[in-house]
Amino acid sequence: MHNGNGNGVEASRHHRRKHTFPFARSSRHKPRRWPLALRFIKGAIHGAIILPVALHALFAALIAFIHQSLDRSLGLPNSTIPSLSIVVGLMLVFRNQTSYNRFWDGRNYLTVIITSVRNLTRSFLACSYNASTDTLDSERADTERVVRILIAILYSTKNHLRADWGATIIPGTAINPNTGIATLLPEYSDLLPKGLEGSDDRGLGLPLQLTFFVEQYIKRNHDKGMFHAPQASQMQVQLNTLVDAYGRMETIRLTPIPIAHLIHQEQVLALFGCILPFALVDDMGWWTVPIVILVTFTLYGIDGIGSRLEDPFGYDRNDIKMDFIVEDIRNEIAVLLEEWKR
Fold first, then answer.
1. What 3-state DSSP class applies to 74?
2. Average pLDDT over residues 267-279
3. pTM for the full model?
């Protein structure tokens, strides 16, 4: 129903307001149409391991053919397998545990940054006023500006870890370092301070650059008497904690598994897959081929999972859902800002 003064329209809009809940995007899960055991594409690592598994299968078929059809004895004692399997197992356990620790630590450090942003937002919105004087519109605008910068820090941290930065930050665009093509970034261009020029081309990451605006805001309001000394000090601790977590995420991103370990692991896996047919062909005959496929599929699959988890900040389905998490936090702080403005 509508009345002449438009109140009905406003009421209708209010009742059509889209409802949501905390972490609506990052906690969203589509219903599974197929059991995970039957999934071979989305989120699976089969595409990455199909080549080595196929090569080992062909080699096993060659050994079985020579052994069975050409009557050449190529069998080895079964005792050669246990000693190698122990080494392979230990190396795969180390690789996967190390990779998952990197994934888990990356998620925890993202939580630290989010917690710091939440705490700073709460403090800025609740305490940025002076009881002895009225808060000016310019001061309220300054507070809203710095809260938006806090949200921009989340976006810029995400993009920084993915190497999606630009030599000069232009609102709405950035330069992909691999292709040199401008990439639209509408997700947080409206959050950046007006006239901001990035210094990525001089080695300064945007997240660290944005923290200067937050530090200046704390100092400015402390001098005005809005924040007392212990309170301002606590805010600086939160900001330092944010920068510390950001640096630890950089460490994960920039410190890969040592190449010597990766080389030796791949060589040991290949050696084990090549020796396996010789140890099985006497007893299994042509059944050697499917058994080798099963074993190499399992081992190379575990190795592939470790490779996927090694850098958890990318776009893979197995990576941290940074896009959704940051969007949820942006929505959360946007609601706080909306309530604060009333």
1. coil
2. 92
3. 0.80
